[in-house]
Amino acid sequence: METRGNLHRDGGNARRTESGASLVEFALVVPLLLALVFGIIEASWAFAQQNDVRHGAREGARLAAVDFGTAGAIANEVCDRMDVVNPAEGITVTLSGAGTHPGEPGAIATIRVEANLQTLTGFFPGLFGGTVSSEVEFRTEQPASGAPAWWGSSGAVPCSS
Questions:
Q1: Could you write out the three-class secondary structure of the chain?
Q2: Cα–Cα distance measured from residue 94 to residue 112, given in angstroms and rounded to the nearest whole number
Q3: Which comes out higher in pLDDT, residue 10 or 123?
Q4: pLDDT tens profile 72-106
Q5: Is the dihedral of CA 55, 159, 138, 135 positive or negative?
């Protein structure tokens, strides 16, 4: 029987010693690997939500520019056009106009869409922050009879479920 360190080369002992070391290495590496995989999943989900909020803000700016309706109607339409973020999770749309001639083409306004960040796996709930938001500045394009219906509204309008 040949002996080298703790390994015995007589058949079965070498295999049993190595399997224990493999199990310990596996136990040390798996949590790191799972944290990496779930971190990538959560980061991708947060990025998708941010893109969806940006899309909603752009859509809302387009609707408000052509005087789609009241702030509530624009907010509901923005929420309907967003695919990833769940409206029940707290999407708010804030429209604000600037200037003294809101009914004329070229009046400047802004829209801000904000949503609560949702986690997909639940492993890193506070890592990416609590909310995602996007703000778009736009010009009114279509002359309206008087001010656009949403022009005088102030405050955030939540999506209605």
A1: CCEECCEECCCHHHHHHHHHHHHHHHHHHHHHHHHHHHHHHHHHHHHHHHHHHHHHHHHHHHHHHCCCCCHHHHHHHHHHHCCCCCHHHCCEEEEEECCCCCCCCCCEEEEEEEEECCCCCCCCCCCCCCEEEEEEEEECCCCCCCCCCCCCCCCCEECCC
A2: 5
A3: 123
A4: 899 999 999 998 887 767 888 998 877 666 667 77
A5: negative
Measured distance CA(153)–CA(95) in Å, rounded: 7
Tokens for 97? 């106009």
Cβ burial of 9 (10 Å; 0-12, 13-18, 19+) is exposed
d(CA 127, CA 38): 12
Top-ranked range on mean pLDDT: pick from 8-17, 49-58, 70-79: 49-58
Amino acid at 2: E
Residue type at 149? A
Pairing of the two strands 92-97 and 108-116:
antiparallel
Cα 49 to Cα 36, 60, 74, 115, 132: the distances in Å are 20, 16, 20, 9, 7
